[in-house]
C-alpha cells in the first residue's frame, strides 16, 4: 500500500549542528517513499498485448521505484514502464514531452522514442490493486551501461560534449510541471536535513553534517544560478556506450528526474559520476581529473559564467551528500531493494572525505 505520509518523519539530532538559518520546509518524497505492488512479467505481457498490440519475450529490469520490462520482438526491443502509483500523470507527461521535444529538435541525440498505445495515447491509466498506475512504451536503445565499464579519459570529454548538446537542445523547452520540487534536485538539499538522523554510522553522519553545513553556506549563490529544464541525472547508470564506434555514446536514458534547475547543477551531477569509485579508477590522476575532463568537454560547446564555475566543485559534492542521505533512508524503508538502492553509495565516503580535506576557496577556484 502507498505510504500515507510520504513526507519526512519528524526528527531532531544533527540539526543542532547546522547553522541557524531557519528551519527549511520538508520536501515531499512522493514516489521515493511509496511502496507499490509488483507487477509480474505475465501480467505486464498481457497489458502490452491488450493495450499496445505488442507481444514477445518480456524480462523484468531492476529499477528504483516502478515496474520496468524489456519486451523483445523478432526485429526490435522495447521498454515497458508501469509507473509508481505516487507518480502523477503530469510528472510522466513532463518526461514524455521532453523526449518528444528532443526527437523533434535534436534527432541526432540518442534518446528513446515514445511508442503510442493502440488508442494513440502516450500514457495509459491502469486501475491496479494499489491504485491507478500509468504505463508507457518506449524504444529500446542498444549499448553497454557505462556504469559497468572502467572510465576512459577521451570518453569523459565526449560525455561532457553530449551533456552540453542535451542542455542546448532543451534551452527553449517549457512544461508546466517542470518547476516541481524534486528531492534529487540539489537546490533542495537544505530540506533534506532531517535525513541526517537516519544515517546509522556516527562517523558517516558527522562527515555528512560537516559537508551539509559547508554547502548550506552557499545556498544564496546556488539559488541565483541560471536555470532551465534539464535531465538532472546524467550518470554512468543512464548512459549507453558502444566503444567500437567513433561516437561511443549510443543512448541517454531515464528522464525520470527531469526538472527545471540550475544548469550548473545538471553539469555537476554528470561530473559527480566521473569521480573515481576506488583506488584503481583514481590511478595517478587524482580525485577530480575525470570530472574536469567532462567539464572541459561541456564548455567546448556551451559557456558557463565564473559564478557557475566557482560553485561547480561544491555542487558535485552536494550531490554526493544528497545521494547518501536519500539512499540510506530509502534502504531502510525498502530493505528488499537495498542492494539496488545502495549500489553507488559506498564509493561516496572516500569522495566526501576528499571534499572535506580541501580548502574551500581553492576548490572554488579550481575550474576558473
UniProtKB/TrEMBL annotation:
Task: Kindly state which reaction or reactions the protein catalyses.
Answer: (5R)-5-hydroxy-L-lysine + GTP = (5R)-5-phosphooxy-L-lysine + GDP + H(+)
Principal location? cytoplasm
Q: Which InterPro entries match?
A: Aminoglycoside_PTrfase (IPR002575), Kinase-like_dom_sf (IPR011009), Pseudomonas-type_ThrB (IPR050249)
What are its E.C. numbers?
2.7.1.81
Task: List the subcellular locations.
Answer: Cytoplasm
Aminoglycoside phosphotransferase domain location is: 66-280
Q: Which Pfam families match?
A: APH
Q: Does the record bear Transferase in its keywords?
A: yes
| Taxonomic superkingdom | Bacteria
Q: Does the UniProt entry include the keyword Kinase? A: yes
Provide this UniProt record's keywords sorted from A to Z: Cytoplasm, Kinase, Plasmid, Transferase
At the top of the EC hierarchy, this enzyme's class is: transferase
Q: What does this protein do?
A: Catalyzes the GTP-dependent phosphorylation of 5-hydroxy-L-lysine.
Q: What is this protein called?
A: Hydroxylysine kinase
In its UniProt entry, the species of origin is given as: Thioclava litoralis
Amino acid at each position: 500500500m502507498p505510504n500515507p505520509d510520504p513526507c519526512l518523519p519528524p526528527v531532531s539530532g544533527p540539526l543542532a549542528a547546522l547553522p541557524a538559518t531557519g528551519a527549511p520546509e520538508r520536501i515531499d518524497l512522493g514516489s521515493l517513499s511509496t511502496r507499490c505492488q509488483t507487477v509480474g512479467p505475465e501480467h505486464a505481457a498481457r497489458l502490452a498485448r491488450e493495450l499496445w498490440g505488442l507481444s514477445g519475450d518480456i524480462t523484468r529490469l531492476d529499477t528504483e521505484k516502478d515496474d520496468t520490462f524489456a519486451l523483445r520482438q523478432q526485429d526490435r526491443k522495447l521498454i515497458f514502464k508501469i509507473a509508481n502509483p505516487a507518480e502523477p500523470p503530469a510528472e510522466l507527461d513532463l518526461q514524455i514531452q521532453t523526449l518528444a521535444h528532443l526527437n523533434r529538435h535534436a534527432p541526432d541525440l540518442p534518446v528513446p522514442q515514445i511508442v503510442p498505445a493502440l488508442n494513440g495515447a502516450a500514457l495509459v491509466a491502469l486501475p491496479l490493486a494499489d491504485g491507478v498506475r500509468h504505463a508507457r512504451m518506449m524504444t529500446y536503445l542498444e549499448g553497454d551501461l557505462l556504469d559497468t565499464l572502467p572510465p576512459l579519459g577521451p570518453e569523459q570529454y565526449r560525455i561532457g560534449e553530449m551533456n552540453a548538446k542535451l542542455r542546448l537542445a532543451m534551452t527553449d523547452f517549457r512544461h508546466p510541471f517542470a518547476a516541481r520540487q524534486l528531492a534529487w534536485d540539489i537546490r533542495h538539499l537544505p530540506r533534506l536535513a532531517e535525513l541526517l538522523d537516519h544515517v546509522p554510522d556516527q562517523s558517516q553522519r558527522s562527515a555528512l553534517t560537516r559537508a551539509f553545513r559547508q554547502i548550506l553556506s552557499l545556498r544564496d549563490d546556488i539559488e541565483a544560478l541560471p536555470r532551465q529544464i534539464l535531465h538532472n541525472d546524467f550518470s554512468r547508470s543512464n548512459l549507453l556506450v558502444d566503444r567500437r564506434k567513433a561516437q561511443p555514446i549510443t543512448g541517454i536514458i531515464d528522464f525520470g528526474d527531469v526538472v527545471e534547475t540550475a544548469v550548473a547543477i545538471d553539469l555537476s551531477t554528470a561530473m559527480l559520476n566521473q569521480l573515481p569509485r576506488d583506488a584503481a579508477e583514481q590511478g595517478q590522476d587524482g580525485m577530480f581529473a575525470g570530472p574536469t575532463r567532462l567539464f572541459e568537454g561541456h564548455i567546448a560547446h556551451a559557456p558557463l559564467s565564473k559564478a557557475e564555475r566557482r560553485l561547480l566543485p561544491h555542487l558535485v559534492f552536494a550531490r554526493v551528500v544528497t545521494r547518501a542521505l536519500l539512499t540510506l533512508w530509502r534502504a531502510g524503508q525498502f530493505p528488499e531493494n537495498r542492494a539496488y538502492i545502495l549500489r553507488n553509495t559506498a564509493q561516496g565516503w572516500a569522495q566526501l572525505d576528499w571534499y572535506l580535506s580541501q580548502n574551500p576557496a581553492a576548490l572554488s577556484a579550481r575550474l576558473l
